[in-house]
């Protein structure tokens, strides 16, 4: 045992080790089917027999990764094979995100099965991209695969890349920066990241987008360029880079861990739904985390160790759903997702109101969205430290954000489930975005974001290109009004009595989503910017609304007495 493993054990609050003696065989060669040599480290506990955990990562095998994912797991009774993905660190080949993970992963499984220390029980573990490498092999790994633990990830990354039909600029450019700067020591990586921050902030406002990777990293990033160029729906580029169509074929028990502010949550829930529809009983845990939340590391490792030990012992694993209710800290067990709470329509009203009754006849509200001064996106589902729960009053003060607020709630109001909105909007442009954010206004007037979503209106598509919500049709009604459907991130939160519900309507959320230039130019090469003059309707014929899960049990006139669906 090392001092480092003691620190990791304490910091991550891991269960007691079953052995302190771990042998590490480094830089083991694993030959892929095309001859490329992948490098792996094997952490072998001093035990007569132990199951194996495979972790395939593009983030290296030494330092923190080796200590937390290698030694710490091995000390708790598992052989650990920690492998660098193709083209990263000392593994051969070229790193083309997502493209080779199926074949390389299956070849590594075959290599593990041929080792004398393999006892026939294989598990896979890891978050984010490391979780994607699990999904890439899960349908074909065979009976040796006894279980998976996949935090904050999904079986396909195409849809999150073009969330709502836009481009997830902040996440993708930050990830391109991270992968470009790694390869040396942790200190070297931290230095490069710090130096890159000013360039990254400037690049987020640069056009065309095809130049921003060079501005930040000093050289073109191949996958960044490719993802800009292959944004159209049905592009064959993505055919061998996603595995969402095969989720139903996965028979190994799956433990999924998500965060209310995670960048992958809607698609992780889609994977959960696919497993449930196929008759599986996955375990789903959703907590208060963002994607890069350090608290998530310890929680995920503890869950994985418990999950794998239970499976290795041949004991039944728990199915169902466990969520933390925001605003309370309470953990709750649910039989399934989403819970059968129904939903309530909250309608936008004239004068900035929000209520459960259909609005009266009124004139539309107007705002101007100028992509030269894009509406910012404070908090929410970002890859960076700016993610999560933030006070939104500064963005609400902008003239390009329409704000609708309910009266104080007469009682607690619990929101657990999906959130959608329909906004009736007329724009001066054919190409525009509609962004909706749900906030909780506390007793001090602070406005805290709970969830949000965006839909890009494109006259050439009937669905968002890769987005998780349908795009509005490019053909409006005879009055020029579009009925734009927006799918927001799911929510699990309890609003206190006296707090208020607030809804924003805007024309963008930058840099979380790349701004819509308004010109219809291609994503990669657009340079020109057009401002959009927008009208948002709230009248009986065009009742813009947000659909929230749950209901108020009772209240004064005008409050909902029950769900509408």
Short description:
With 565 residues, the chain is of the alpha+beta class.
Structural overview:
- The protein is α+β, with helices and mostly antiparallel strands and 565 residues long.
- It has three domains: 246 residues, Alpha/Beta hydrolase fold, catalytic domain (Rossmann fold), CATH 3.40.50.1820; 63 residues, no CATH class; 207 residues, Jelly Rolls.
- Helix content is 23%, strand content 28%.
- The protein contains twelve helices and 22 strands.
- The strands form three sheets. The chain has a ten-stranded mixed sheet with strand order 1-2-4-3-5-6-7-8-9-10, sandwiched between helices. Strands 11, 12, 13, 15, 18, 20, 21 and 22 form an eight-stranded antiparallel sheet that branches. It has a four-stranded antiparallel sheet with strand order 14-19-16-17.
- Strand 20 and strand 21 form a beta hairpin.
- Helix 1 packs across helix 2, helix 3 packs across helix 4 and helix 6 packs antiparallel against helix 7.
- It is globular and about 75 Å long.
- The chain starts with a helix and ends in a 16-residue tail after the last strand.
- The C terminus is likely disordered.
How big is the Rg? 24 Å
CATH-assigned homologous superfamily of the largest domain = Alpha/Beta hydrolase fold, catalytic domain
Name of the CATH class of the largest domain: Alpha Beta
Taking pLDDT < 50 over at least 5 consecutive residues as the criterion, the unreliable ranges are: 462-473, 560-565
Query: Given the helix and strand composition, which structural class is it?
Result: alpha+beta
Q: Find the count of extended strands (DSSP E, 2+ residues).
A: 22
Q: Largest sheet at a glance?
A: 10 strands, mixed
Helices, by number, come to: 12
Strand content: 25-35%
Spatial sequence of strands, sheet with the most strands: 1-2-4-3-5-6-7-8-9-10
Could you tell me the CATH topology label of the largest domain.
Rossmann fold
Please state the second-level CATH architecture of the largest domain: 3-Layer(aba) Sandwich
Helix fraction bin: 10-25%
User: Could you give the distance between the termini?
Assistant: 57 Å
- Mean pLDDT across residues: 93
């Amino acid at each position: 045992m090392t001092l480092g493993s003691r620190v990791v054990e304490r910091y991550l609050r891991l269960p007691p080790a079953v052995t302190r003696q771990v042998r590490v065989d480094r830089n083991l060669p694993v030959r892929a089917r095309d001859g490329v040599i992948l490098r792996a480290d094997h952490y072998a506990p001093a035990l007569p027999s132990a199951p194996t955990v495979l972790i395939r990562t593009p983030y290296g095998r030494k330092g923190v990764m080796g200590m937390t994912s290698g030694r710490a797991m091995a000390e708790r009774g598992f052989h650990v094979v920690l492998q660098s993905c193709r083209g990263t660190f000392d593994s051969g080949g070229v790193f083309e995100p997502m493209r080779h993970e199926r074949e390389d992963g299956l070849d590594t499984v075959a290599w593990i099965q041929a080792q004398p220390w393999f006892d026939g029980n294989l598990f896979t573990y890891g978050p984010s991209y490391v979780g994607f490498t699990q999904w890439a092999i899960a349908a074909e790994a065979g009976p040796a695969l006894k279980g998976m633990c996949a935090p904050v990830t999904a079986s396909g990354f195409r849809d999150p890349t073009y969330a709502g039909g836009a481009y997830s600029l902040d996440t993708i450019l930050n990830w391109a920066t991270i992968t470009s700067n790694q390869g040396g020591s942790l200190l070297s990586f931290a230095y490069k990241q710090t130096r890159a921050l000013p360039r990254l902030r400037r690049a987020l406002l640069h056009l065309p987008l095809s130049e921003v990777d060079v501005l930040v990293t000093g050289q073109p990033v191949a996958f960044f360029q490719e993802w800009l160029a292959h944004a159209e729906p049905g592009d064959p580029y993505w055919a061998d880079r996603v595995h969402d169509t095969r989720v139903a074929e996965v028979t190994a028990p799956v433990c999924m861990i998500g965060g209310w502010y995670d960048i992958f949550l809607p698609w992780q829930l889609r994977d959960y739904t696919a497993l449930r529809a196929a008759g599986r009983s996955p375990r789903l845990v959703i907590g208060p985390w963002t994607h890069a939340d350090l608290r998530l590391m310890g929680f995920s490792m503890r869950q994985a160790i418990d999950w794998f030990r239970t499976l290795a012992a041949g004991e039944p694993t728990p199915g169902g759903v466990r969520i933390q209710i925001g605003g309370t800290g309470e953990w709750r067990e649910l039989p399934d997702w989403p819970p059968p709470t129904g939903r309530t329509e909250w309608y936008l009203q004239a004068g900035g109101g929000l209520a459960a009754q259909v609005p009266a006849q009124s004139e539309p509200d107007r705002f101007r969205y100028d992509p030269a001064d894009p509406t910012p996106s404070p908090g929410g589902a970002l890859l960076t430290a700016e993610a999560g729960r933030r006070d939104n009053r500064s963005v609400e003060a902008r003239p390009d954000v329409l704000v609708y607020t309910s009266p104080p709630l007469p009682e607690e109001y619990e929101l657990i489930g999906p959130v959608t909105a329909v906004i009736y909007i007329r724009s001066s442009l054919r190409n525009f975005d509609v962004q909706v954010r749900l906030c909780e206004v506390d007793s001090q007037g602070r406005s805290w974001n709970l969830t949000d979503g965006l839909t890009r209106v494109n006259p050439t598509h009937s669905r968002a290109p890769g987005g998780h919500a349908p795009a509005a049709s490019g053909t409006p009604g005879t009055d020029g009004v579009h009925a734009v459907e927006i799918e927001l991130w799911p929510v699990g939160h309890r609003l206190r009595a006296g707090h208020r519900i607030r809804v924003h309507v805007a024309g963008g959320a930058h840099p979380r989503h790349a701004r819509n230039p308004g010109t219809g130019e291609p994503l990669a090469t657009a340079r020109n910017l057009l401002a959009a003059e927008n009208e948002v309707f709230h009248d009986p014929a065009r009742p813009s609304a947000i659909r929230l899960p749950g209901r108020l049990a009772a209240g004064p006139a005008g409050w909902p007495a029950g769900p509408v669906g």
